[in-house]
Amino acid sequence: PARLAVGNNGETLVADSAAATGLRYRSAAYSAKTAAYTFASGDDGKIFSMNNAATQQFNIPTDATFDFPIGTEITVFWITGAGQPTIGAVTPGTTTVISTGGTSATPKLRVANSGATCKKLAANSWIVFGDIA
To answer: What gap in Å lies between CA 77 and CA 51, rounded to an integer?
Structure first.
């Protein structure tokens, strides 16, 4: 057995096979964004909102930048603002994003207060499903 020190206020304990103890802390589960945002370490399982007058994108990085575990889910939603958020790969030639959206590789959230989930299916391969256009 190993001792894991207490985390910070608002963090939750999650399983992580890459961590020495098999556990790690994840920071707050919700984050409001007003500009384009690229998902990063610790974002798995989080919820992100977007609020901007102009279209902004939630970006999925390549595995070389940050290798999320297969099965990772990240939820996004459009809270307010005239800018219709999109979801896409930082490097479309390397990372594949698929969806039922009008543009499969860069779906848009359908209307204000709509949301979608980004789920990693395999190496550099994600699906986006939810209330998308």
So the answer is: 9
